[in-house]
Specification:
By secondary structure, the protein is α/β, with parallel strands linked by helices. It has two domains: 85 residues, no CATH class; 181 residues, 3-Layer(aba) Sandwich (Rossmann fold), CATH 3.40.50. Helices cover 33% and strands 23% of the residues. It contains nine helices and ten strands. The strands form two sheets. Strands 5, 6, 7, 8, 9 and 10 form a six-stranded parallel beta sheet that branches. Helix 2 crosses helix 9. It starts with a strand and ends in a 6-residue tail after the last helix. The protein binds flavin mononucleotide (FMN). Flavin mononucleotide binds next to helix 2. Flavin mononucleotide (FMN) binds next to helix 2.
């Protein structure tokens, strides 16, 4: 049940009992400037049986209808529906889908390269190995093998704490929410992360919403390990920014990234002197007991 200010309330007497419809306003300005959410709740007696919400970020600029009007329409349509078929509202309707998967891992590795046996995949296997040595469970997500659609910017996740886009993302959200260490292993593609990883990063806005709406905090430390074809620091300027914004958005505390260049020449990360040691050392520091960063 929403805890915002009740703006409007109506009791509806039916043969199935008394229903109450409430229009509630929540000021979500602490999440985004000016964000307001209206929730319309149907109660059967004292029990909430249906909840619909709309927020001001859902409405595109120039729309002929504003959020308050949309909420008012929702209110009157629900009032009409409850009065005309009350039997449909005697039991709770759930809009929120539970996240799948019970098997959670201490260390979650997001492997961003489409190449199953490429350098990022090799680095991911070093990470999993280091986790095992530290007595931790791990899971590598080969993101290219998941069906993840791009974020559609609907902002519906700030209504209910779940994303309406139906694909494999719930598995990743579930894993990230329970991990204590999150490693992003990725190549640089055109200066930044590959498209599949970018889709996952954008869709993690859902995790941000879950934190804000449901209070499900991510309590993890993070590490970026990136590989690039070219030498020097230049290829990593954008990718480090993108991945640190991703971590910052979710409250993941990042360690110093491990950046490995010159792969166009070396082809194989195992041929780059010190690369494996650097990756393993960064992980050992993250796994060290008492490292609260
Ligand atoms: C589409 C594409 C774009 C790339 N863009 C860059 C780039 O902007 N800068 C760079 O240094 N390397 C770039 N590379 C090279 C990769 O980062 C490099 O080959 C890396 O080792 C591939 O990682 P993987 O073996 O894990 O797939 C690009 C490669 C591809 C396929």
């Amino acid at each position: 049940m929403s805890e915002g200010a009740v703006e409007k309330i109506r009791a509806i007497e039916t043969p199935e009992g008394t229903f109450t419809i409430r229009l509630i306003l929540d000021d979500l300005g602490s999440i985004y400037p000016g964000m307001i959410r209206y929730t319309v709740e149907v109660l059967c007696g004292a029990e909430p049986v249906a909840t619909y919400a709309v927020n001001s970020y859902e409405v595109p600029p120039g729309s002929l209808i504003d959020t308050r009007e949309a909420a008012e329409i929702l209110f009157s349509r629900l009032a009409h529906d409850v009065a005309s078929r009350p039997h449909a509202y005697t039991r709770p309707r759930r809009l929120t889908r539970p996240l799948p998967g019970s098997g959670t891992s201490d260390v979650v590795i997001l492997q961003g390269s489409p190449r199953r046996f490429g350098n990022s995949a090799r680095i991911a296997s070093w990470c999993a190995d280091e986790a095992a040595r530290a007595g931790l469970s791990s899971r590598i997500f080969f993101l290219h093998e998941f069906s993840i659609r791009p974020c559609i910017g609907c902002y519906a996740c700030y209504n209910y704490g779940y994303c309406p886009v139906d694909d494999d993302m719930p598995w990743i959200v579930r894993a990230l929410e329970s991990a204590s260490v999150i490693v992003v292993c990725t190549p640089v593609y055109t200066g930044t992360v590959p498209a599949g990883l970018k889709a996952v990063i954008d869709r993690c806005q859902w995790l941000h919403a879950r934190q804000k709406v449901l209070g499900r905090e991510v309590h993890a430390r993070g590490l970026l390990v990136a590989v690039a074809g070219r030498r020097g620091a230049a290829p990593f300027v954008c990718i480090t920014r993108v991945v640190s914004m991703f971590m910052e958005n979710l409250g993941i505390r990042p360690a110093a990234p491990v950046l490995i260049g010159d792969l166009d020449r070396a082809r194989d990360v195992r041929k780059i002197e010190g690369a494996e040691d650097d990756v393993r050392a960064a992980l050992r520091t993250l796994f060290a007991p008492g490292d609260e960063g």
